[in-house]
Design a protein that fits this description.
About 50% of the residues lie in helices and about 0% in strands. The protein is built from three helices and no strands. It has helices at about 1-15, 30-40, 55-60.
């Protein structure tokens, strides 16, 4: 996949990559596959979770 190859290329050549994703990266965003691909090159990666739309939208509308 082109995105995975770019992540590895940038990590190896520039030292870091930020992969910003909207929504839940593990539902439709292929988050696990990207983490696994980075690990196959011994590149450390971490996930910083955001707010899922399933709780964010109701919260904006004051729905408990």
């Amino acid at each position: 996949d082109a995105v995975n190859k770019l992540m590895i290329d940038y990590a190896l050549n520039y030292g870091h990559v930020v992969r910003l994703k909207g929504g839940d990266p593990f539902v439709f965003g292929r988050g696990y596959e990207e983490l696994d691909y980075a690990a196959s090159y011994s590149i450390p990666a971490r996930v910083i979770p955001g707010i899922s739309s399933s709780i964010g939208v109701p919260g904006l509308q004051n729905i408990p």
